[in-house]
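Human: My hope is that you can spare some time for a protein that puzzles me. I am handing you a single protein, as its sequence and its fold in token form. Could you go through the record with me and say what the backbone is doing? Take your time, and here it is.
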Amino acid sequence: MTVSFPRDGCSRLCRVAASLLCFVTLPLAACEIDVLPLHFGAINPLHANASDSATSLTVTCETSTSYTVTLGEGSASFADRRMQSAAHTLAYNLYTDASRNVVWGDGTAGTLTVAGSDDGSTATHTIYARVPAQPQAAPGVYADSIVVTVSF
């Protein structure tokens, strides 16, 4: 949904109020999402293998609802998501498939979204992840944050 405002000097308060009024007119439907944390565990940079992991994302809607799940870029880009530890980074990515070929994103830059339909129960989606081999990785605890959006 796109909301546009005229550039006629409308104040920020006016824009917030207009936005809130817009949301009041939407159909009343509620969906909740729950994403379990994703952990890769200890990664040995001396190994030439990628480290794979996965986590679950659940969507529960009050009524039968079709939806789309998008994942944000995190601290880098869809092509090369990055976890950070102080000044160091570690490349990784998130995928829609177990073979880790299709990057899960927002539908831009070659990424795909995941669509679903909930009949009032819980639908579970798997987020597949991979840290490719990185022999120059510095020791540390690495983390990134991803925004998960469910549009219905």
